[in-house]
Each structure stands twice: as structure tokens, then as C-alpha cells.
Design goal:
By secondary structure, this protein is an alpha+beta fold. It contains 4 helices and 12 strands, in the order E-E-H-E-E-H-E-E-E-H-E-E-H-E-E-E. Strand 5 and strand 6 form a beta hairpin. It is flat and about 45 Å long.
Length: 233
């Protein structure tokens, strides 16, 4: 059986304010899609599995254009091998053209939705809608006080107390907006795995507390941020 990997959506959340240049894949969107279709492999670990799998991937792109996965499970957790295939893809990925602000290169993020399929389907490259009011690029991204581990603990505590769930194994990909005061709004759940309902993910993120705002040239700015978490207790 010929294995065909399809890309349902490949998209970037873009900062559109004046004096800024968005991050881009060398050669543009079509070159990006062609690269993925040529280099993303259906994992051999999937064995007899014949279903379709869609995975959201957050890439952190530094000022040299190097892309790094923001999140990836351990090899023990990656039972089907899909994340291993994604890491192999990122390892051979060419350098992106980095974002700039007033002529200075700055870090940014990109999101890909990758569809693994054994069916003969063509790639769908429709662009994801842009969110025009939020910053995504920054010299210093939004951050949670004491790091992501502390964020996970705060969210897990809220979920345990609000749902009564004493055991949880769930993952989430989320987009938030952090304002100049560190307050969180505009929570959107991009993807999730496990038994936890979307409303509890949103409530847990909101209840975790204030963040440190993003900065551009030393000043706090309203920023959009993408992150992925695996909560297990």
C-alpha cells in the first residue's frame, strides 16, 4: 500500500503591525508544504494501525531561523512513533527566514497541523485565518512565573479540585493572549488528548494566574503565545 502523508492545514499566526516582517519558510508556503510531504514519514512503529492521525506542532524559531519543537513526548510515551517522525522532519528542516522588528531579528513561533494518513488524499493548503490584533513576535516571550512546571502544578490543582478527578493523563495545545499587565484572555484550545473536556482546560489556564508579559525593546507588549502541556498525576 502506498503511504501518502497529507497536510490538512499549514499555517502561521502572524504579527501584522508596521515595521515588522513575519517569519517565513524559504521559498514560501508551497515550498513548505512540499518539504513536509516529501520528508514526513508514516512511522513504522504504527504497525498495523490504519487510522488517520492529526497532530498540532508548535515550532519555536530563533533569530538564526532554526526551528525547535516546543514540546515532544518521551520515546516511551510516543507509542505509535508519530512524534518521532515529526522530530526527524524538524531535524532536516532548512533554516526559516526569521522574523524582524525594526530591522532586528527576533524569535517567533509557527504552528503546523500535520495529518498522517494511509489514504490517497491530496494536500489541503488553505491558510488558517489570521488573528490581526495580537502580537506573536517578541524579543522576550510571555512566561509563567517559575516556569512551565509551576504552571502545570497550578492547572493540575485546579482540575483536581473542580472536577474531583484524582487521576489524569491528558494533553493540550493552546493559544492565549497575554496583555501588558500579564493578564490572560482569548484562550483557544487548538488540540487536546485525554478525557478532560475543553471547558476545564480553559478554566484551568485562566485560574493559573498572571503571566510575565512579552517584551519588545524592553517594553511590555500584548502578545499571543502558543504552548503545549501534558498533565499526568
Amino acid at each position: 500500500m502506498r503511504i501518502l502523508l497529507t497536510l490538512a492545514f499549514s499555517f502561521l499566526f502572524l504579527m501584522l503591525a508596521a515595521q515588522e516582517e513575519r517569519v517565513s519558510f524559504p521559498g514560501g508556503l508551497q515550498a513548505q508544504n512540499n518539504f513536509i510531504l516529501q520528508n514526513l514519514k508514516y512511522p513504522s512503529k504504527a504497525g498495523a494501525f490504519r487510522g488517520d492521525t492529526s497532530i498540532f506542532v508548535v515550532l519555536n524559531i530563533d533569530t538564526t531561523g532554526r526551528a525547535v519543537l516546543q514540546y515532544a513526548p518521551s520515546p516511551e510515551e510516543d507509542i505509535m512513533g508519530f512524534w518521532g517522525s515529526i522530530q526527524d522532519l524538524v531535524d532536516v528542516m532548512p533554516r526559516w527566514i526569521p522574523a524582524t522588528y525594526k530591522g532586528h531579528k527576533i524569535p517567533s513561533q509557527a504552528v503546523l497541523q500535520l495529518n498522517f494518513s494511509r489514504k490517497s488524499e491530496s494536500a489541503n493548503t488553505e491558510p488558517y485565518p489570521m488573528f490581526r490584533d495580537y502580537y506573536l513576535y517578541y524579543e522576550h516571550p510571555p512566561s509563567f512565573p517559575y516556569g512551565q512546571i509551576h504552571l502545570s502544578k497550578r492547572m493540575a490543582g485546579y482540575i483536581r479540585s473542580s472536577t474531583g478527578m484524582m487521576q489524569l493523563d491528558a494533553k493540550v495545545s493552546a493559544r492565549i493572549v497575554v496583555d501588558t499587565q500579564g493578564e490572560v484572555s482569548g484562550i483557544i484550545i487548538l488540540d487536546k488528548e485525554g478525557q478532560l473536556e475543553e471547558q476545564y482546560w480553559k478554566q484551568a489556564i485562566a485560574a493559573a494566574g498572571s503571566w510575565k508579559p512579552a517584551q519588545i525593546q524592553g517594553r511590555p507588549v500584548k502578545a499571543q503565545y502558543l504552548f503545549q502541556l501534558h498533565l499526568r498525576y
